[in-house]
Design goal:
alpha+beta, Protein Transport Mog1p, Chain A, 7-stranded antiparallel beta sheet, elongated
Length: 317
């Protein structure tokens, strides 16, 4: 289940006051992260070697930088907090030498894609004071990488800009740099055990099959429906086949979204008692259906593997 420093004065771009588009464009950078921006934004620069992306608004100087930096490339790295403290000192020194007055305004903790992160806000004033800007950074540690998100803009616009920034940060999905990460581009990703065989079916489904052929887990999706999740599950229960019996029904969360798990038992065509797991979760645009089957005697053990698999799922639409 395996996954420089760019602070220069060139980062000082004005971040325009705009609203986040309801239908944004999702970018997958290398296999490091996925992020969604408003449709009007364009990619200005992209570097797969360092998992870096810079987006800009057409005809504006608004710009955002996001990149993933291997911890092995960070000198004397100890922890995320230690890195933030050292970065604050280095930044004050750098900007001061450039004739700018930079001051730390806020430093707080948060989570990005369920991973601990830090938010650091600076104010910057030119000499003489022509204008006051903000420099806002988010830093998150995940596996062996530090993810950085950098925003700059007019300080007076910060309150409004923060709404757009929040949407961008909330859209970000951090990915493991592993060969066993699979899925369908811009739809979902999933992490199967290393020794499983993975098959995809015309960009409609992805299956993981254990070395013994059972258990196997398949993930597919279909367009969003009008029914609520509870209404949909109730309808499924009413249409159950007589040949299978509902053993358990559970509420859970997949990628921070409500989901429902149904466990059935029955006999396969060879007459062997089997289990059938059906799991449903709503995305923004799709309903995701995850199902698994195996020998009933292995259910308790297989459920542990199934839990790890669904816990790795990242829903992108």
């Amino acid at each position: 289940m395996k996954r420089i420093i760019l602070f220069t004065l060139a980062l000082l771009f004005t971040f325009s006051t705009i609203g986040f588009a309801q239908k944004g464009i999702t970018y997958e950078v290398d296999d490091s992260f996925i992020v969604t921006f408003p449709e009007t934004w364009e990619v200005k620069e992209r570097d797969y070697k360092i998992s870096f992306i810079n987006l800009i608004l057409p005809n504006h100087s608004s710009s955002v930088y996001i990149y993933a930096l291997p911890i092995s490339n960070i000198k004397d790295f100890k922890s995320l907090d230690d890195m933030v403290v050292r970065s604050e000192k280095d930044k004050v020194l750098l900007y001061s030498r450039s004739g700018l007055d930079i001051r730390l305004q806020e430093s707080s903790s948060l989570y990005i894609d369920n991973h601990e992160a830090r938010r650091i806000l600076y104010s910057i004033e030119e000499h003489p004071p022509f204008k006051k800007t903000y420099h806002l950074e988010y830093k998150c540690q995940y596996n062996e990488y530090i993810y950085s998100f950098i925003f700059d803009g007019n300080y007076d616009d910060l309150e409004t800009d923060q709404l757009t920034i929040n949407d961008i940060i909330d859209s970000c999905k951090l990915l493991n740099k592993q060969e066993n990460i699979h899925g369908i581009t811009n739809i979902f990703t999933v992490d199967f055990p290393e020794d499983w065989t993975v098959k995809s079916f015309r960009n409609l489904a992805t299956s993981g099959i254990s070395p013994n052929e059972l258990p196997k887990v398949t993930i597919t999706f279909f367009p969003m429906i009008q029914e609520s999740l509870n209404e949909y599950i109730d309808r499924i229960k009413r249409t159950e086949k007589e040949s299978i019996q509902l053993e358990d029904s559970q509420n859970l969360y997949i990628d921070n979204r409500e989901a429902r798990l149904l466990i059935y038992s029955g006999y396969n065509p060879k007459g062997v008692k089997s289990y059938y797991i059906n799991c449903y979760v709503y995305g923004d645009q799709n309903v995701y259906y995850i199902w698994s089957t195996g020998n009933y005697d292995d259910l308790e053990t297989d459920l542990k593997t199934f839990d790890k698999i669904i816990s790795s799922i990242k829903i992108l639409k």
